[in-house]
Structures are given as C-alpha cells and as structure tokens.
Amino acid sequence: MTTLTLTTSSLAAAAPGQGTAPLLTTLATILCVAALTTVIFQRIRQPVILGYLLAGLIVGPHLPVPLVADAGLAHTYSELGVILLMFAMGMEFSLRKLARVATTAGIIAVVQCSLMIWLGYLVGHAFGWTRYESFFTGALIAISSTTIIVKAFAEQNIKGRVTEVVFGVLIVEDLIAILLLAILTGVATGAGLSAGSLAHIAGRLGGLLAVMLIAGLFIVPRLMRMVVKLGRPETIVVANIGVCFAFALLAEKLGYSVALGAFLGGALVAESGESHAIEPLIAPVRDVFAAVFFVAVGMQIDPKLVAENIMPVIVLTVVVVLGKLVGVTVGAFLAGTGVRTAVQSGMSLAQIGEFSFIIAGVGAALGATRSFLYPVAVAVSAITTLITPWLIRAGGPVASFVGDRMPPALQTYTSLYGSWVERLRQPRERAAISRARRTAGLLVIDVAVLAGIVIAAASALPTLQGNISARLHLPHGLARAIAIAAVTAVALPFVGGAMRMARALGAALAIEVLPTGNGVDLADAPRRGFVVGLQLTILALLGIPLAAAVTPFVPLGFTLAVLVLVLVLLGIRLWRTATNLQAHARAGAQMIRELLAAEARSGDHGAEALNAVRHMIPGLGEPEIVKLSTTAPALGRTLKQLNLRGLTGATVVALQQETGPAAVPSGDEVLAAGDVIVLAGSTEALHAARALLEQAPPSVTAPTIAAPGL
Amino acid sequence: LSTPSLITALATAAPASGASLLANLAVILCVAAVTTVLFQRIHQPVILGYLLAGVIVGPNLPVPVVADPELAHTYSELGVILLMFALGMEFSLRKLARVAATSGLVAIIECSLMLWVGYLVGRALGWPRQESLFAGALVAISSTTIIVKAFDEQGIKGRITEVVFGILVVEDLVAILLLAVLTAIASGAGLSAGELAHIAGRLGGLLALMLVVGLLVVPRLMRMVVRVGRPETIVVASVGVCFAFALIAQKLGYSVALGAFLGGTLVSESGEARKIEPLVAPVRDVFAAVFFVAVGMQIDPRVVVDHTPAVVALTLVVVVGKIVGVSLGAFLAGRDVRTSIQAGMSLAQIGEFSFIIAGVGATFGATRHFLYPVAVAVSALTTLMTPWLIRASGPVAAYVDRHMPHAFQTYVSLYGSWLQNLRVPSKDRMKKTPVRRIGGLLLLDVSVIAAIIINVAGARREVVEALTERGLSLLAAQLVLLGAGAVVTTPFVVGAVRLARSLGAALAAEALPAQAGGVDLAAAPRRGLVVGLQMTILMLVGIPLLAAIQPFVPLIPLIVGAVMGLFLIALNLWHTATNLEAHARAGAQVITELLAAEARSPDHGAHALHDARHLIPGLGEPEIVELPATSGAIGKTLKTLNLRGLTGATVVALHPTGGTAAMPTGDETLAVGDVLVLAGSSEAVRTARAMLGAEPLG
C-alpha cells in the first residue's frame, strides 16, 4: 500500500503542532484504559479511584505492557485535573457552610489533623528521613479523601448524623489542606523551617487570602450571576473554567500551588448562589481531567520502589487507620456528638486520597522529598481506600461494642456530655460571649508564647549549651541538661497558665449551661464533669497542634513525656468526675423514680414530676418520658437487646413498669405495653431513642419548659 | 526571602509546559467568556464572540493579552475532535435513512453547486486548481452550530426546522467525505481520475470496515457503561472512544474529524445518546471555545483587507448560491415554495467545517496562507447575516410567490402533491424494477461521461503535441481535440438526458397511473411531473458531474453547456406549466360545474368531488371545505390571506353561499358558508384548512 505509507508519512511530516499527535495518543490511551478499568472495578464493587490508579500502572512506564502513555504529557494534563478537582471542591465549600459546621467540625478537624501531622512526623523521624520529608509525611496522612468517602457513603446508602459530621469535618480539612499546601510550598521552596519564616509565610498567605477573598467577593459572584442569567450552558461552562484557571494561574504566579487558587476560585463562584446551575456543567470536564490526574498518579507508581519501601507503607497505613480513627473519634466525642457517631465518623475518615497526591507531588516537584515518598503515599492511599468501605460497614458494630464495654460511669458521662454541649450551642447573651472570648484570646496568646519560647529555645539550644559549658567548664551532657532545665523553667509557668486558663474557660462555659441555683448548688457534680470535658477539649484543641508545631524543634522524648503526663492527669480527673456524676445521676434517677411512683396514677403520667426533677437535678439534659404503646416495636425485648444507648446515645434513667414500681433499670427488664421510660441525653439522642422505641411519635411528651438559668 | 526568589524557584521547579498551558487556557477562556457574554447581550451569535476573542489574544492585534498560537492550535484540535464527535452523535444512521430521500437530494444538489461555483470563483480570482478546489469545499457546507442557535433564539419550530436539519445531517456526511478526499488530495495524491477513484475506494472500504466492526463493539460497550450508571465513567468512556477513533483516523492518514464523527455515530447507535450527550456537551463546549478562539487567532486583519475582493466574492457566492441551490433543491424534492425559500435562507452561511477544511488545506500546504483568514472572514460575515436572512425569509417567500407567473404558481402547488404519491411505498416490487434499472443505467452513463472527459483532458497535452507535430497549428489542434471530445461525449449526454426522461416517465407513471382503457385524463399532469422529475434527475447527476470534471476541462465550454442545458430545461418547464395550467383550469371548471349542480345536495359536493378525482387526476387530493362562522378568513380575500404563499395549497374552486360555483380570481371576499375546493399535497391542504379554520366536508 504505497498510498498509505505516502499519506501517513506526509501527514507526519506536514502536521504542524508536533504536539497534536502525541497529545491525542496520550489522551486516547489514558481515557480508554481508564474507562475499562473503572468499569471492571465498578462491576466488582471497588472504588473507582483504584481503577484509575491501576490504569495508570498499566499505561505507566514501570509495567512491561505495550500500552504506554507519555508521562510528561500526562503530568501536564494531570495539573488541569488537580485544578478542576480543587475548583469543584471549592464550590462545595462555601463560607456559609463553613460557619454552620465550624464548631463541631472545626474541633474534630483541628484535633485529628494536628494529631496526624505529629504522628506522621514521628514516623518519618523514626525511619530516619529528613525533617522536610517527615514534615511532608505528616501532611500526607493528615487529610482524608472527600472523593472516596462521598462515593462509599453513596454506595452504602449512609445518611443522617454521621454524614453531616463527616462532611463537616471534610470541609474544614479541605481548608486545612489548602493552608498546609501553601505553607509546605513556601517551606519547600527554600524558606526553611524556622519560626520566623513560618510566621512570614503564614502572614503573607493570610494577607493574600484576605485580599483575594475580598476583591473576589466583590467581582466573581456578581459576574457569575450575570453569566448564569444569560442561560446558555456553553457560556456558563466557559466562564467558570476561565475563572478557575485564572485563579489557579494567579496563585501560581504568586508562588502558591495552583490548587489553592482553584479552590479559592471555586469558593468564590459558590458564593454566587448559582452552584446548582454551574456544578452539573463543570462536573463532566472535571471528571475527564480528574481521570487523567488519577491515572497520572498511577503512572508514577513504581512497584519496585513500593516493594523496597514496604515497611514505611505498612507503618503509615496503620498510622492512618488507627490515628484517624482515634483522632476523629476523640475529637468528635469532645465536640459532643455521642460515642456512636464519633466512632462511625472516625472509621469513615480513615483513609487518604487526592490531597495526599497533591502534597506528595509538591514535595517531589520542589525536590523537598526523595523519589520514594510519592509511590509510598500512593500505595498507602490505595490500601486505605480499599479498606474504607469495610471500615464504614464495621462502624456500627464497633460503636456498639465500644458502647457495651465502657464502664457504666463513662457511659452516663458520655450520654450527658452531649446534652450539655448542645445547650452550650444555644444563643446566649453578649456579655457571656465576650467574657468567654477574652479568656480564649488569652489562652491562645499563652499557647503562642509557649510555642515561641520552645522554638526559640530549641534553635538557641546549641549556642546556649556551648556558652554554659564554656563559661562554667562543665561537660556537654550536664550543660545540655542545665540548658533544657532552664528552658523548661521558663516554659513551665506558661504550661501551667494554659492549663489553668483552659480550666477557667471551661468553667465559664459550663456555668452558662449549668448555672448555680439560688440555694444549694444541685448542678455541682454535672458542672464539674462538664468543666473537665471542656478543659480536655480545649487542651486537645491547642495542645496537639502545639505538639505538632514544636516537634521538629524539640527532642522527641520531651514532647512525648509532657503529653503522656498531661493525658494521664486529665484521664484521672475525667474518671473521678465521671464516677461522681454517676452518683449524681443515680440520685436523680432515684428521685424521678419516686416521683413517678407517687404520681403513677395521675393524668399527665409524670409530666409534673419531671418538671420538678428538672429543677432539682439539672444536668440530665432534657429528660423525656415515653410511654410504650401496644404497637411499639420494643415490646418484649430488654433494654440490653435494644442496645438503646449504643444506637442512639440516650440513656434510660428510670423505668416504671405497668406491673411493678418504678426503678433504676438494670437493663434486663422485658419491656411491655404501658411501661413508662424516662430518657436523658441530647435532643437528637432523645429523638433517635424515641424513634427506636416507638414508630409513631405522638405519645406522652414533656411540656417544653425553659432550661433553668436561661 | 523575597517574592521574586519564590517565583523563580517555582518557575524552575514546575514543568514549563504545564505553566504555559495553564496560562494559555486561562487567557483564552477568560477573554472568550467576556466577549461571548458581551455578544449575547447585544444579541449576536456566540461564535462571533469567540472569533473576536481570538483576534484579541492573537498575535495580529497590538493588545497586551496574548496567547501562544502554537499551543492554542494544539488544543483547538481537541475542540475539532469533540465538536465532530458531538455532531456524529446527533447524526444517527436511522435518522439519515429517514431523511435520506428528500434531504439527500437537496444536499447533493446544493453542495455540488456550491463546490462548482466556489471553484469557478477561485479560478476567476486567478487561484491555482487545488486552491480553487478548497475554496469550493469551503463554501459548500453550512454551519449546524450557527443555525441551531439562530433557530433557538428566534423560536422557530415545525416543518422548516425538520427540512433544514435533515439537510444539515446529509451535509455533515458530505463534509466528512469531502474532508477525507481533500486530505488525500492535499497530502500528495494529486488530481487524477485514477487517484480519485483509489481514494474513494479506500475511504469507502475503511468506512465500511470501521462501521461494521464499530457497530459490533461500540454500542454494546456504551450500553454497558451507561448501565453502570456513573456519570463520571460515562463521560470518561465516551471521550475515550472519541479520541481513540480520531487517533485511528489520523494514523490511517485521514483527518481526526472523520474519526471523531464516526465515533460519535457509533456511540449514538447505542441508543443512549440522550444520557451521554449532556455529559459530553460541557467538555465539548470548553474545547470548542478554544477551537473557535484559535480560529480567530489566525485572522490577520491585514490579510483580510488585502483580499477584500475574494472575501466579498465568496460571501456573495455563499449567500446567493446557498439560497438558490437549497431553494431549488428543496422545491424539486417536493417542498412548497415558502418552505424551500426559508430553508435556503436559513442555510446561507459557512462555519466550523469551513475552518476545518481551510485548516487542512493550510496544514498540508495545498493552499496559500491567505485562504484561511479569508474563509474565516466570509464565515464571520455570513454568520452575522444569518439571523437577518432567517427573519427575512417569510416576506421574501411571500414576495416570490406573488411575483411568480400564474402558470408556475399552479405547477408549484401541484408538483408537491405528485411527489407525495411517489413516496408512498408501492405494493409490489416488480414495478420498481424499471425505475431501478433505468437509474442504474443513468448512473453508468454519467460516470462514462465523466471518465471520458477526465481522460481526454488528462491526455490533452500529448494529443495536442501529436497533432501539432503532424502540422496543425496549436489552435486548430485544440479545436480538433475539443471537437473529438464533444463528438465522443455527445451521444452519452443525449443518452443521459433521454434516460433521465424515461426515468422521470417511469416514476410519473407510478405517481399518476394511466387508467385502464378510455381517455388518459392524467396526461397533462403526468407530462408536467415528467419534466419536473427530469430536471431533478439531471440536476442530481449533472451538478455533481460538473463539479467533478470542472478541474479537468476548460471553463468556457462547460459554462456554455450548463447554461444551455438550463435554458432548454426551463423552456420545457414553461411549456408544460402552461399546458398544466389549462388542464387545471379545465379540472376546476369540472369541479365548479359539479359543485353548482349539486349545491343543494345534502353532502355539499362530496360526491361531486369523488367524481372529479376520477375525471381529473393530478390535482393532488382535492378537498372541499366550508367556512364556519368562527373562521378567521371571513371578510378577507384569498389574496390578502396569501393562502398559497403561506401553505402551498391552491384554491381551484369557490362556491359562495347563495352564489354559483366559480374559479376564484383571488379578489372574492370570503363569507360564512362559502365552500372552497383546495388542491395540493396533503400537508399543504392540511395547513390551509387549519389556516381557514374549516372542517373537511368530503
């Protein structure tokens, strides 16, 4: 076929953009292989992202498969994928949404992200990696994957409180990731890891963000509304992607990652309030390039390199799963979500994904990390992604298990803690807010000073040590000990101050929820319990980030020792107040029982009694009375079988059975129609418990009365 | 630490191509967004906005916002591919089969006319043959994108859109074939008959192979992907298929557009297009924007100014040629005058395909540098005019109808109704055989003509040399050659005309069969139909023939021949039209008399009509209507109603209440209870009835 050779050769010779042919080949190969692998993965019910990574492995240079795509081109295009992914995430992220979930999700995200950064740093350090590498490792494992969780939830049809908490956390995590990315880019481009440069970076970033947000908020939402009003999908998609690329470009020109700019662009577009019109148009474009991005990530996995670094992979996987689980669960519990939701959230968030690739990519591109870290990150992400659906499915049973095995004192504490936090969230007077704010401000300053002292002392330590040994003619070891002791002596007052201030803040908040009565302070025990919980929350919120921030500068053993000490102290206090509270609750239950027994035959089935109880024993939340109807699904089962507290977070403080007198339930009573149950816990827990006990909501409801002191 | 050091660090660390890619896309898309929003605000086509954005970011205007043309070109290729893929998805084989007969006729006539005229203009401007050929191809294909949007904006719906979109579907197919042929020609195969046949054969084989294999694999695959139900997977798989087919076509030496179009067609065969289309659309829109901007970037205003005559000439050719070609084709395909003219005026512009064709020409060096900007300028001008032309088409159609000779008016009304009979599937296939056989012979005849002419032309130099060696002067030698050629071809030409006539007669006999025994009352209309069909057939084979042999023969004789042929046909047509007019008048007379006789019978002439249908065939499906009191036509004359102009149906008899039935002059004022006899195609009659607000009686 002479013509064929003639035409093809002349074509090859004449085609102007020599770029066109390889570009088309690369895109066609990547997308076709990706389509095949993802269809197969969906058939075997595995996450799509794994399909993309596998496609990347296939078309990548490391496997001996004849299908090979140009890695350089793929990388170039994957950049567009990152930008569009971040833009879409930015669109999901709105300032309003952030404000709504800020407290709960903020506490969880800050606690768990800093815990993960710290742990990751420690792991990297333990493997003997450089400080940069360890820092990047920490950042790598800090951020969970929105993409994977959204899909896993959709596939398992999970809804309700857990999704709310998890998506809230993800939103804040996205924000943290963006900030981390900016800081890491700054650090890796040569600013170095010193307190001054970090502050400089943070300040510059903050200023930039503020300028971009303010200027952007004036222009972009207005512009987008105008474009959407034209009603042409074509124009909408072109304008949006234009904005997306423009912001990415701007960020890049200013020395930040494109992801930051695109995310910001998305957030600004979302502020137009037209996301519902824009999102479906952007999604296909994003999907195509996200596919290219994930495939390009897969192309960079060298199986040999992963095999060589199998130990870091395993350790980091374990750290991700356990660390996220513990971090999120503790954070969520402290934020007042209840044990079950906390455990489920923890198990849902235990994986890493797209942000880790981006962070690892930044590290590799800027030469801050060696080449092995990227494949390791991808491998860890792949394994944790694979585990995620199982973890989410196991979330319920594990939560029940934890709930069952908890000491009764802690069980009561957890049930009631949620109700206190809930009441804290109700709007209150300005004076109280400003008081709490002042204390909180002082606390933050205290911690910042502490961080400053530690970091400054750490960088000055060798000089100090040298000076001491030279002046006093002491051996190095001793000089070092003296130097550390001196620093500790300087820092200790601040540590003590922080603890005290946390306590004061906790107390100030607790008194809002559980005010002292006029006569005898009946709310004393619950308030003490609440103060401890709040103190723990505040310390975790400040202490773990502090630990993560100072870790690179101070010896490991020191931080660890301080942390363990603080944890043990707080644990003991928690246990003490929990048992104390248990006694209080028991007394309250006793009182309720007696009132119930006395008014058993009155018309309102104890509503009056309850009212009295609420005044006499505050801190039982909003106790609610439920009378089991003849159709209730709970009939014939015991409270233990129902797993009421495990499933709902509400606790039964009293039970009056039709056949006998009211009593504090042991859990083994068989429920019968007409039984009256007194429930305590947060509103939401009570709501869930009622739904569990009886399908039809209308039954005896306590009249809503104002909480005491409000 | 300073900002510059950060940036330099980043710039050195980040891959350079990635950065400039982002910068280019950002500039292109942002400027495009601004210009298109502006253009939509001033109600102008979006594509013009893109072109303007291209001029702004292009290297030819001194604006500080500049994108890299090289990179933009690379990405615009993706735009072409995705655009063609989407067009291919709109184009389904089933749809093609449904519109093939009518739209195929129109598209073939007008595309070859445009090719021919474009070539002539190119030659007249002194361009070489290949360039002229590209100029012809450039002006041949209308822009689906622009028409869809213009219709959308003006809220035009109904029959006209059906006709226009049918033509566009076939035009797309023609464009794809043209593109393949042009690519092959431009890449060095040259312009010889053998090569052309080779190219066509190879392309046909390839298309058949890809279609057969593709039909076995792609629709099944896409159905499976769609069943998984994840938008993400659907879009990735569809775009993957699109790029893969484009790549295959490129590897085989064809344009990427061909492959992508084919891929789109195969994907749409899965029957899931309505799920796939909205997902692919945004991706296409982004890259189509890049494509159109990249097109705009290549406009150098100076080049356009330098070639103003070419731009003006080609713009005129596009507008006038398209209007005439499409209107004529649509009319010959049996559409009424109004629809034909509306279709012609809607299709009078060029767009994306022209850019692609011009791009191919420029890429392969087959055309000089100026043709691309000229094509873009022509496209911009015609695009700008399209909304106006569409808006003006109604009045123009009415004007044409009013100023047509009376004999033509009747002919035109009835021609459509005759063709309608042809489209009804005939019961026994035996009857079709002569039609098929004659059609085959005709095609053979025409190909022989083409072959002879091209061969004679190919051998011209040698023959002339041989003759001059024998002592003849150059002029004499050429004349001898021409004469010899004419002598050899004339019998075939005459044969073609005769074959066309007998084919027309065979078809007409099917539409208006002679009654067994007795007088052949359908003779006059049948003759009329034969002439019309002959004209259609001659144009259908003649204009493509003209376009095909054009590059090989001298201009003058060809034009003379074409004009002569046209003149002869027109004469013939005029003859039969007046003949028919007499026949129709006679028929109307009969109906009038029957109506008058049975005016007071209970069925209001339904019986009379039945008789009339037998007595005077060829008036379509005449229908009797009585004007109710609610009719909007009460108190108006037929002329003010413009009934024929708007509907294509003609009133052959009018029986006013209390008066006597008569042939209408057009000036009678209509009143309640008037009985009208309408003739024309069933669609025209239906529309007329709806316009009169009347119910049928018969």
What does this structure look like?
The complex is a heterodimer of chains A (710) and B (698). Chain A is mainly alpha-helical and 710 residues long. Chain A has helices at residues 2-14, 20-43, 48-59, 71-92, 95-126, 131-140, 146-156, 161-191, 195-230, 233-253, 258-270, 275-299, 303-308, 310-334, 339-348, 354-365, 373-405, 408-424, 430-472, 476-513, 524-550, 556-598, 607-616, 639-642, 644-648, 683-693, and strands at 624-627, 651-656, 662-663, 676-680. In chain A, a hairpin with a 5-residue loop joins β2 (651-656) and β3. In chain A, α2 (20-43) crosses α12 (275-299), α5 crosses α8 (161-191) and α8 crosses α15. The longest helix of chain A is centred in the middle third of the chain and has 43 residues, at 430-472. The radius of gyration of chain A is 29 Å and the shape is globular. The model of chain A is unreliable at 1-19 and 696-710 (pLDDT under 50). Chain B has a four-stranded antiparallel sheet, sandwiched between helices. Mean pLDDT of chain B is 81; it is low at 1-18. By secondary structure, chain B is an all-alpha fold. Chain B is globular, with a radius of gyration of 29 Å. At the A-B interface, α1, α2, α4, α8 and α9 of A face α1, α2, α4, α8 and α9 of B.
